[in-house]
Amino acid sequence: MAKKSKKNQQQPGGTPATVALTSAGVEYTVHAYDHDPSHPSYGEEAAEAMGVSPDRVFKTLVADVDGTLTVAVVPVAGQLDLKALASAVGGKRAAMADPALAERTTGYVRGGISPLGQRKKLPTVLDASATAHPTICVSAGRRGLEVELAPEALTHLTNATLAPIGRA
Fold it and tell me: Radius of gyration (Cα) for the chain, nearest Å?
């Protein structure tokens, strides 16, 4: 799979995520790779293509917490703990959101949902394990495109709550 990396350079046809990062003046690196539609996991595919440990590549999931769509950002190496997510935002019950609703609300397609530059700003929770790494990778807003940035920058830009919401 071809891999390209660009540091803080807006690519032609940039995504809302990269536009948000550039506008905020945040240091980031874009990693592009050839997406394989037959791969069973978008996140694992990204980690493999970039040669990055799966505990540093985070997936963006949209859940419904007591009627409020909420973004959860967890390592691709694990799963989202829905009870922990609900607790992190002061809710009682969480379930995965309908994929079509998640796409309409964020403005991104499944497998390419970024926690950055979403159409509608949603409450966001970043798994606390992110702080163990100097940088993490999240979707840049389309399949085959990731951004690498400091977890503190992601937390700041998304106004995320840090909480242990992932499980192995």
Answer: 15
